[in-house]
Automatic annotation (TrEMBL):
Keywords, comma-separated and alphabetical: Signal
Signal peptide: 1-20
InterPro entries: DUF4440, NTF2-like_dom_sf, Steroid_delta5-4_isomerase
Keyword Methyltransferase: no
Domain DUF4440: 34-140
Name the UniProt record assigns to this protein: DUF4440 domain-containing protein
Amino acid sequence: MKSLVLITLLHTAILGAAFAQTSADNSPEKAAVVANDRAYEAAYAKADVKALADFFSDDADYTTEEGRTYSGRAEITDAIRAGLMANRGSKLAITVDTVRVLGPESVLEKGSTTVTSKSGEASSSLYTVIHVKKDGKWKINQLIESPIAALTPRDRLEELAWLIGDWEEADKTTDLSVRSLYAWSRGGNFLTRSITVKHGGEVTLEGWQIIGWDPIEERLRFWTFDGEGGFADGYITRDGDRWLLRESGVTPEGGRTTADSTISKVNKDRFTWESTNRTLDGDPRPNIGRIEINRAKRN
């Protein structure tokens, strides 16, 4: 894994180029680093050790997250070669966080990078890179790697934190209302939802939902229970400001159910919900069209 991380970082260093993609400043310095990035990606795909090493200055330093330092292009070349041999066919994904031009011949870049091996194993690191101009060409002069802090279940749930609070949906024609209260569990590692359905002011159904992080499947999972004895569970997939909840469940009578529900965030105080692909014991059931749900007004 460490050799995998090394290759990640070396590519990341070149990603000093990528900062130009997130900056409105299209200076010649940044444009040149971007061109280096594209060339480095091509060399990485070909496992071209010499081409990869040529992106570093002769006096470059590379420090791993364990504190080991490779000094000079020769040592870095050996490290690149060893990493490529140990991790044939790996893929790189880089996220640039910040970029700053220090001067006409130096650029500072920070970000994170992930290398995924052919077997699907992924390794991520943070990085800081200084690019310098040598004989008219931009080179990596210093690359420092640092570990990424492990994400907690709470961190994983942050994408749904906007739901915290009281929500309501009412149909005046039928005098039916649904109230949902989202809250953090004690310790903050789960989101809880309490559901109250009223008809004519009387509570006709209650339900509860728990949302958490599944460390085995590595995705958000939920469990839903209703006051009549039914229950369901499933997984949540995000697509921008939309979340797909794919579930299977059991009715109080023992029937088997499936459904795909979609939550779409409109703004901080409004979202829509709809349900499709609904079945009961394998037989299709009617879809539920889009319903608008608003944050409850404070009294």
